[in-house]
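Trying the structure run again after the queue cleared.
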Amino acid sequence: MSDPVSWSGRRWLNHHLALLRLGDWLMVLLGLLLVVWLMQHFWLTAPADHVVVRQGGHVFCQSTLLTDRDIRVPGPLGVTQIQIRHHRVRVVSDPGPRQLCVREGWISRAGEAAICLPNQVSVEIIGLQRDYDSLSY
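Done. Tokens:
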């Protein structure tokens, strides 16, 4: 014999599903399509393929994410070390006092950036499609 709690749950579900009409199902479908479109348009970004390293506002180096590489960028406070591994980038060390760009960790999506303000060094991931952010203004 089946459990009375699960049976009452099935009856409740069947009762409420029977109340849905064609317009209700169309609204559910429209809502799901809207969620999928919004996710693709705003959440998913273009694949990243390049990294741009700037020092003092000027491009210091531009490299592909396909090859592993270490980059040393001289700045006013010292040398910032950047590492490219497995299609990701991170700032390994920076002479700045707060180490915010080092704490950013690995970045891998187009539009992401790590900025070392005291040493005037920034690392930005570039994809096929350039998104607008605070670095673009």
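The chain has two domains: 4-43, 48-127. Worth checking whether this holds up in the mutant runs.
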